[in-house]
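Here is the promised in-class demo. Please do not try to memorize the tokens; focus on the logic of going from shape to residues.
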């Protein structure tokens, strides 16, 4: 049984971005194949390009990318395009409780794309099918973007 299961194999993809424009374009392409209901956890250091990637996702969903900024102080921002985009940032999160209080669980139960910067801090709140994306700073403007669908980044 397990042998034939299409979802049993871990799936990872890697992309080397040479500029913020390429990261943004990669985010746009990712959004094209997401469907209308997904959760993405973004992992990467300060300035890695997490918000830049979210701007690309927003663009594809018909949302003004300039409206997308790190929502550090409000925890979660809602954007309405063709598909709803929920943009969360867990950088300053002291506990997962504050994200429950602002309704993260409810957002995840409804169609829309939920993207969480510093997502590893909220791993226990998100569904098992969440997509993990790690952005590593290689040098200058080069980044390694790794996407994993098996629960790790
Ligand atoms: N290849 C690249 N991809 C993304 N951003 C890049 C790249 N090269 C340079 N940059 C620059 O790095 C910065 C990334 O900023 P961004 O706000 O997206 O990072 P972040 O990961 O969201 O940081 P934070 O943790 O502070 O929220 C921008 O100034 C961007 O122009
Ligand atoms: Mg950011």
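The designed amino acids, position by position:
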């Amino acid at each position: 049984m397990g042998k034939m299961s299409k979802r049993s194999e871990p799936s990872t993809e890697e992309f080397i971005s040479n500029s913020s424009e390429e990261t943004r374009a990669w985010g746009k392409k990712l959004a094209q194949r997401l469907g209308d209901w997904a959760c993405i956890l973004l992992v990467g250091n300060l300035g890695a390009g997490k918000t830049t990637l979210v701007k690309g996702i927003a663009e594809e969903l018909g949302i003004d990318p300039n409206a997308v900024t790190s929502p550090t102080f409000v925890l979660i921002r809602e954007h309405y395009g063709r598909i709803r985009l929920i943009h969360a940032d867990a950088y300053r999160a002291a506990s997962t409780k504050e994200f429950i209080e602002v309704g993260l669980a409810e957002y995840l139960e409804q169609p829309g794309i939920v993207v969480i910067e510093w997502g590893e801090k909220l791993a226990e709140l998100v569904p098992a099918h969440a997509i993990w994306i790690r952005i590593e700073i290689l040098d200058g403007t080069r980044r390694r973007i790794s996407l994993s669908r098996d629960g790790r980044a």
